[in-house]
Amino acid sequence: MDASQTNATLNVFLVEDAGAVRQRIADALSAIPRVAVVGEAEDAPSALDGILATGADVAVVDLRLIDSSGIDVISGLSRERPEVVKLVLTNHSGPAFREACETAGADFFFDKTSEFDAACRTIEVLVQTRAARRAP
Fold first, then answer.
1. What are the backbone dihedrals phi and psi of residue 13, each rounded to the nearest 5 degrees, phi first?
2. Taking each helix axis from N to C terminus, what angle separates 44-54 and 70-80, rounded to the nearest 10 degrees?
3. Is residue 26 classed exposed, middle or buried when 0-12, 13-18 and 19+ CB atoms within 10 A define those classes?
4. Domain span at residue 15?
5. For residue 123, what are the CA distances in angstroms to 30, 79, 83?
6. One short Pfam family name for this protein (predicted)?
7. Do 25 and 14 meet the contact criterion of CB atoms below 8 Å apart?
């Protein structure tokens, strides 16, 4: 892979407590050209450490995590690395959850059950946008 391809790659970090679901998301995102899943975590502290260590461009975050909340991840990233795109993908999609995520700094919010394909399409658009910005 040459440098221009590397720069066009969108690095994604997954934050999801359920291993099987995390694998499904990783498989779907890895099938998108120029997307690399660079790390995974199942709790907020590991997620924040991993996202910062990997230099991820996007964090795909569930709200229910082991001993923590995805809102903690979103809030932490909003303070530490606001440029990271925070995409919530959760089964907890009621208005109160959406509002809490927006307040914490989420960029996108999707219901895992009914909007999974829309979340993947959003990642595709982010890849295309990144590639267009880097084109000579």
1. -115, 130
2. 40
3. middle
4. 3-134
5. 11, 22, 15
6. Response_reg
7. yes
Q: In this predicted structure, what is the pLDDT of residue 131?
A: 80
Residue 54 contacts residue 39 (beta carbons within 8 Å): yes
Task: Map residue 18 onto helix, strand or coil.
Answer: coil
The 3-class SS string of 70-117 reads HHHHHHHHHHHCCCCEEEEEECCCCHHHHHHHHHHCCCEEEECCCCHH
Identify the CATH number of the domain in which residue 63 sits: 3.40.50.2300
pLDDT of residue 134 exceeding 90: no
Q: What angle do CA 95, 108, 80 make, to 5 degrees?
A: 110
Distance CA 5, CA 34 (A): 8
54 contacts 13 by C-beta, under 8 angstroms? yes
pLDDT of residue 4: 38
Number of domains within the chain: 1
Distance, CA of 69 to CA of 104 (rounded, Å): 12
Report whether pLDDT(30) > 50.
yes
Where b means 16+ CB within 10 Å and e means fewer, 55-69 reads: ebbbbbbbbebeebb
